[in-house]
Amino acid sequence: MQYISTRGQIQEISFKEAVMMGLADDGGLLLPASIPSLSAGDIAALSKMTYPELALRIISLFAEGIPADDLKDLVDRSYSTFSHKEVTPVVHQDGIYILELFHGPTLAFKDVALQFLGNLFEYLLKERGEKMNILGATSGDTGSAAIYGVRGKENINIFILHPHQKVSPIQELQMTTVTDPNVFNLAIRGTFDDGQRIVKEVFGDLDFKSEFSLGAVNSINWARVLAQVVYYFYAFGRVQRDTGCKEAYFSVPTGNFGDIFAGFIAKRMGLPIRRLILATNENDILSRFVGKGDYSIADVVETPAPSMDIQLASNFERYLYYLMDQDTAKVRKAMADFSSTGGLSFDANLQQRVAQDFLSGSATRSETIDTIRDFYQKTGYILDPHTAIGVKVGKEQTGGECPLICLATAHPAKFGDAVQEAINTSPTMPDSLAGIEKRPSRCEIIDAETDAVRNFVEQHSC
Ligand SMILES: *Cc1c(COP(=O)(O)O)cnc(C)c1O
Questions:
Q1: What pTM was estimated for this model as a whole?
Q2: Where are the bilayer-spanning segments (predicted)?
């Protein structure tokens, strides 16, 4: 299985090269040159597998060049850190299925991908005799999942910038209490936007980037998408076993289009997903795209679901590639138009094609809070605000034709304030957070200046 760029201006590369490249060298995103398809019989057989068995089966279809035993070891280690024996269990509540993706070390679905990516990076770096210094900026969730993905790994150091005293106390502690020697938390005296700007500037210095082998763990790495394809198969198998259904809906709270794009890949592989339901908060560029063919940037609004407070969906270009019949010249033109005008619009014909894969909707702040409250009153089950958005939109868009599976992307304890507002009680802290404020922590507070960050990386690089 070779990999291509959505912009068509690189040679085909191997899986290993695609993982190390991250963003394609032509500025596009990497995708497999073809998507393997599975028969109904294959899919039925998958439903009997444990999560790690299934992950190995799916990932190996895309990961040529890694010996089966090595891949098995990588997968097994990646999912042994999850606290639930099923890794991503499916629970039935109020007539819908909730796919709990938050049993990893940082209690959000990003662990499913980043636990795997961290192990994969370590493996590939060792094979190549190379090192990597990961640099990133976070407003909360991704930073801690990335840190937990690479803590204690050989030949990798990680530097994560967060805005000093501007992330939630739990999120800050989840990062700063990781005291492994290869982990560096930098609290910058500035905002999240300062952090992003600094990271961009440091990466833009190509000499520095190559001298210190800078790497990124953002959601555009193909291996992250790939690891997320697995749980669509897993959940469908569990629900089919329960109900005998032939199809299912998946509702996905969406920001960067990464998680839901993994569902699109699963659908193209043959998983009988009736429609993927794209759920957004008030930052609704993606639901406007699905509903009206309007993909145009607006200002970012703060919501109770901060991990979806995004306007530029970094994985969207991957979907465009398929929507434009894999015509890379068309993708290049669309992305150039988008970057000059800040918007794209799609004609009725294309909109109709989008509608064959997706339904969509969005939830306001008060609808999100109300959904948490209503669901709790009916079932006693506490949804986190991101998950609540998926539940609200999913229920609105479907009518019981086939089961609805809602992706639960975070543990409610991570977003205790929104939950408190909705139901007037706090969710129980899971064991991994208990006593976190008493653990030793490590963090450097530095000025929001590119040079300060560059110097720090230089002095602490591996
Ligand atoms: C990152 C995140 C999302 C959005 O996922 P995308 O892949 O960016 O669409 C949703 N919920 C939570 C809790 C997240 O951390």
A1: 0.96
A2: none
